[in-house]
From TrEMBL:
Domain of life, source organism: Eukaryota
Organism this protein belongs to: Ciconia maguari
Subcellular location: Membrane
Keywords of this entry: Acyltransferase, Lipid metabolism, Membrane, Transferase, Transmembrane, Transmembrane helix
Protein name: PCAT2 acyltransferase
Family named by the database record: Belongs to the 1-acyl-sn-glycerol-3-phosphate acyltransferase family.
SUPFAM superfamilies named among the record's database cross-references: Glycerol-3-phosphate (1)-acyltransferase
Alphabetized InterPro entries for the sequence: Plipid/glycerol_acylTrfase
Chief place where the protein resides: membrane
GO cellular component: endoplasmic reticulum; membrane
BP GO terms, sorted: lipid metabolic process
Length: 159
């Protein structure tokens, strides 16, 4: 069994890298030549691509890492709950919640958008960016979340 672990560990790492690169590719395709850069919601095939492929790839990624999540109950729809709260949201487990809820927009610090690979994936979710250097950032974040929540389904849920 130790030998199996030694062999399986590199295979898992390769699978994880492959899944992340696929997610980056689909995120890049969905946002290619999309005008608005966060001020206009993704629509049509772009939004469906993000919802289906990234959700599936994220679930697969966590399965490869050994996580199996089962949802009990009914997940609230966009019109029932335009804002979805996940607490205390302090780890990579938030990605599980995102995958299970159809890849909603998230609130994230602005610096995360410039991270290689993950920044592109994150940008495809059209996050509400929070800048720690901007003194008006909190007010702007609240305004943006409110705008999206009152959009009557134009924007995805915000987590």
């Amino acid at each position: 069994t130790v030998l199996q672990g030694i062999i399986l560990l590199p295979l898992r790492a390769i699978c994880i890298a492959f899944i992340l690169l696929l997610a980056w590719l689909f995120a890049s395709i969905a946002t290619f030549r999309h005008h608005g850069e966060g001020s206009v919601p993704l629509k049509g095939w772009r939004r469906r691509m993000i919802q289906t492929t990234l959700s599936c790839l994220t679930r697969t990624l966590f399965f490869v890492m050994g996580f199996q999540v089962k949802v009990k109950g009914k997940i609230a729809s966009l019109l029932e709950a335009p804002i979805f709260v996940a607490a205390p949201h302090s780890s990579f487990f938030d990605a599980i919640i995102s995958a299970l809820t159809g890849m909603p927009s998230i609130v994230s610090r602005a610096e995360n958008l410039s991270t290689p690979v993950f920044g592109t994936i994150l940008s495809s979710l059209q996050p509400v960016s929070v800048s720690r250097q901007d003194p008006d950032s909190r007010k702007n974040t609240v305004t943006e979340i409110t705008k999206r929540a009152l959009s009557r389904g134009q924007w995805p849920q915000v987590i």
